[in-house]
Amino acid sequence: MDHFNYEGDQLVAEQVPLSAIADRFGTPCYVYSRATLTRHWRAFDEALGAQAHLICFAVKANSNLAVLDVLARLGAGFDIVSVGELERVLAAGGDPAKVIFSGVGKRADEIRRALEVGIRCFNVESEPELLRIGEIAGALGCLAPVSLRVNPDVDAQSHPYISTGLKENKFGIDIQSADALYRQAARHPHLRVLGIDCHIGSQLTSLGPFLDAIDRVLALADRLAAEGIEVEHLDLGGGLGIRYTNEMPPLPDAYAAALAERLGERRYEIILEPGRSIAGNAGVLLTRVEYLKRTPAHQFAIVDAAMNDLLRPALYDAEQEIVPVCRPDPDAPTDLFEIVGPVCETGDFLGRQRRLALAEGDLLAVRSSGAYGFSMSSNYNSRPRAPEVMVDGDQAYLVRSRESVDALFAGERRLP
Ligand SMILES: Cc1ncc(COP(=O)(O)O)c(C=O)c1O
Ligand SMILES: N[C@@H](CCCC[NH3+])C(=O)O
């Protein structure tokens, strides 16, 4: 469910027609809905109910400060993977004590900064990283809170580029070798073992792989407890999928119910790190048709958004719905369009073989673009990044301006 719906023939975000946003802020343009972000975050929070829990939004999905601020005000924690994301969370008013630091390659300066601001926990991905965190904590004279991210060797049945829980993947510590590393961490004078962490992939559309992973994590927790290493929390990562076209992913309450059943009598705080399921359907990318171009093979609609703005179709062959912002006359002739951008790559498409009635100048909305949309955008082809707008009821706020062409070469210089 989202808050982008047709009223009459107009696609409206909450109470603001998207055509009005395009007129005011231009295209391409990202548009987010505060009500949808709020509803999706609360769906997790309420699903876990009385179970001790913390819902940490995965900042990589959408790191816009207004988005982080909306979630921080709801009481969200944040899952970060770089010091840049940490600074964004702090700038948005997020509580460092609710920050989880994930990622396979944390640099020393990033670890130091996270310890200085007092984050909740590091999700550690290797023995050398564990030792580095311990050493830095020693130098700072503090205790570093850690979980080990274990790799349970579970197939997430998602796109291979976004599956992370197989033993072939670079992520996590083999769950069989984790016990020994836990013992080492528990003995370390500058480490405090807080939990067990696991994240098996993204855009999962069934519960089976989550449950397999949970079973393996619980078996590890039980083994550790038997040795006297009692962890406080289990961090089960993110990964719950969303409906892009016709997927039917489980909802947070089904996930929470299955989790409660697996936990039984065990009393752990549960941390989740959802990104896509909170932000994905809380945003659209608005774009305008520049040209229609018929070739012997295809009818192309060349739009003003491109793979630099929304990389998912090019990178994963991902399908996202593309709909008209103003519904055309039902009798208007349709065609099968290749919806492509202006970037000089054949892979620069937003949608393939889409049946639409299109004319030059028409506005389109690429749905489900609130996660891994702007956050994966680039300046490829020296294209300025699109603006971001947040709708809140009947108001639309510019929450990040369109990048200027000057900003594209700020900081660069020629040789003397
Ligand atoms: C460690 C970690 N946590 C959380 C997430 C968020 O995942 P998703 O957006 O699928 O919920 C990711 C991305 O897959 C991740 O790598
Ligand atoms: N960027 C990916 C998801 C990667 C998740 C990050 N671990 C996507 O758009 O689907």
From TrEMBL:
Coiled-coil region list: none
Pathway: Amino-acid biosynthesis; L-lysine biosynthesis via DAP pathway; L-lysine from DL-2,6-diaminopimelate: step 1/1
GO molecular function, one term: diaminopimelate decarboxylase activity
Keyword Transmembrane helix in record: no
Active site: 344 (proton donor)
Keyword Transmembrane helix recorded: no
Modified residues (N6-(pyridoxal phosphate)lysine): 60
Domain Orn/DAP/Arg decarboxylase 2 N-terminal: 35-279
Cross-referenced SUPFAM superfamilies: Alanine racemase C-terminal domain-like, PLP-binding barrel
UniProt-annotated binding residues for substrate: 276, 312, 316, 345, 372
Enzymatic reactions: meso-2,6-diaminopimelate + H(+) = L-lysine + CO2
Keywords per UniProt: Amino-acid biosynthesis, Decarboxylase, Lyase, Lysine biosynthesis, Pyridoxal phosphate
Domain Orn/DAP/Arg decarboxylase 2 C-terminal: 29-370
Cofactor(s) annotated in UniProt: pyridoxal 5'-phosphate
A Pfam entry, by short name: Orn_Arg_deC_N
Binding site for pyridoxal 5'-phosphate: 239, 273-276, 372
GO BP term, pick one: lysine biosynthetic process via diaminopimelate
EC assignment: 4.1.1.20
Function: Specifically catalyzes the decarboxylation of meso-diaminopimelate (meso-DAP) to L-lysine.
Subunit structure: Homodimer.
Family label: Belongs to the Orn/Lys/Arg decarboxylase class-II family. LysA subfamily.
Protein name as it appears in the record: Diaminopimelate decarboxylase
Species this protein is from: Halochromatium glycolicum
